[in-house]
Amino acid sequence: MSSVQEKVQPFAAPKGIPEYSPPESVGFTHVRDTLSSAAERAGYGYIELPVFEETGLYARGVGESTDVVSKEMYTFADRGERSVTLRPEGTAGVVRSVIEHTMDRAGLPVKLRYAGPFFRYERPQAGRYRQLQQVGVEAIGVDDPALDAEVIAVADEGFRRLGLTGYRLELTSLGDASCRPAYRALLQDFLAGLDLDEATRSRAALNPLRVLDDKRPEVRTLMADAPLLLDHLSDESRAHHEAVLAHLDDLGVAYTINPRMVRGLDYYTKTTFEFVHDGLGAQSGIGGGGRYDGLMATLGGQALSGVGFGIGVDRTLLACGVEGVQPWSTARVEVFCVPLGEAAKRRLVTVAGALRQAGVRVDLAYGGRGLKGSMKAADRSGARYALVLGDRDLEAGTVGLKDLASGVQRDVPLDSVVTELSSLLA
Ligand code: HAM
């Protein structure tokens, strides 16, 4: 063995992946759990999905022509030479699972919620990541406008519970199989008469609707008089759309109609929506979703409808930062134990255990750091109280209970400190 150790270059996480460690991770889990519990309250059961699936599921389900499938998927061959893909979104996986496990044979709608990481090989920037976190819901099997409104209201409720106010809901209808083809042809005719550059022209050939939300001013001017799908809906789609709006009005959920909204996934029909936060710059979409009435059949299931949303947890957390709302506490613990000496440590370890059993969050200064270092650690932990125990206290059968905000310290009998703290923190 060589006596000279080679210096190991430290590793770095892959590019474009936000990592959440304390104290930021407290906000992350709070946002995720708040969004998820809004869905739980509306009866959406939790589903834990695979993080990778057969590649064909996304190609078929999300659509070959989308950026997500054609440019952004993490696709690789596993050791058995099967092509698999890290999930870029959740809807296709949920629908696959509903079909595979015949969940649609029980009562409809099947209402499911999920949370976790998704993967898209995008160019990383603020709010745009390669590993992104979503909370999502899907309601499958009932084509009822009240269900569309419920899905939207659940997302809205999640944002409101967090204290967010600076977001908007944009909504439109993408019609159905009976009106979209005719509209597509109409739009293509309109586009053929415009002086568009080559790249835009080929984009238009693949998916003409995408030109509608082109952000370049010169294209916007050209598209000002473009026909809009909202003006060409089938009677059924129109009635559905109007019923969704009426339900949202009843629920007090504010919205604006954006007839030029284009979503990055191909499966949408009828109701389509996005939650936009204006404080976030370019990556302003904090959530989006809609109806996907053809997806079940496309993936080999019964011809059942579906509606759902995916909310970006990372971006929602950023929005909380922008608005300065922080409905969570970053305090790691409520009580911090400071032992001065070995005998005191033995006793405080027991006290800490008893407090934890009583439901109190407790930490202890390990490593014999002395009073000053330990009190610094107590402050850093965010605890409300410190328990300071030295040899003399032990002899007297008491412990110093210090209120870390006011600095006031008093002696409390060791035998009753657990009940005392439990009631102080209740
Ligand atoms: P999506 O609009 O592609 O929809 O994504 C939903 C949300 O995920 C976005 O609004 C955004 O907040 C977040 N998100 C997407 N990509 C990124 C990224 N690269 N970095 C950070 N956040 C991101 C879907 O995925 C659909 N499956 C939603 C759905 C469910 N539709 C029906 N059911």
Mind explaining what this structure looks like?
With 426 residues, the chain is α+β, with helices and mostly antiparallel strands. It folds into three domains: 24-177 and 248-323, Bira Bifunctional Protein, Domain 2 (BirA Bifunctional Protein, domain 2, 2-Layer Sandwich), CATH 3.30.930; 180-232, no CATH class; 335-424, Rossmann fold (3-Layer(aba) Sandwich). Helices cover 38% and strands 21% of the residues. It contains 15 helices and 16 strands. The chain has helices spanning 24-41, 55-61, 67-71, 91-100, 145-162, 180-192, 198-206, 217-223, 235-251, 295-298, 313-323, 342-357, 370-381, 391-396, 417-425; strands spanning 45-46, 52-54, 75-77, 83-86, 110-119, 131-140, 167-173, 256-257, 269-277, 285-291, 306-312, 335-339, 362-364, 385-389, 398-403, 409-413. Strands 1-5-6-11-10-9-7-8 form an eight-stranded mixed β-sheet, with helices on both faces. Helix 12 (342-357) links the parallel strand 12 (335-339) and strand 13 (362-364). Helix 1 (24-41) runs antiparallel to helix 5 and helix 5 (145-162) runs parallel beside helix 9 (235-251). The model has no long low-confidence stretch (mean pLDDT 96). It binds histidyl-adenosine monophosphate (HAM). Histidyl-adenosine monophosphate (HAM) is lined by residues 89-91, 120, 122, 127-129, 132, 134, 136, 138, 264-265, 285-290, 308-310, 312, 314-315.
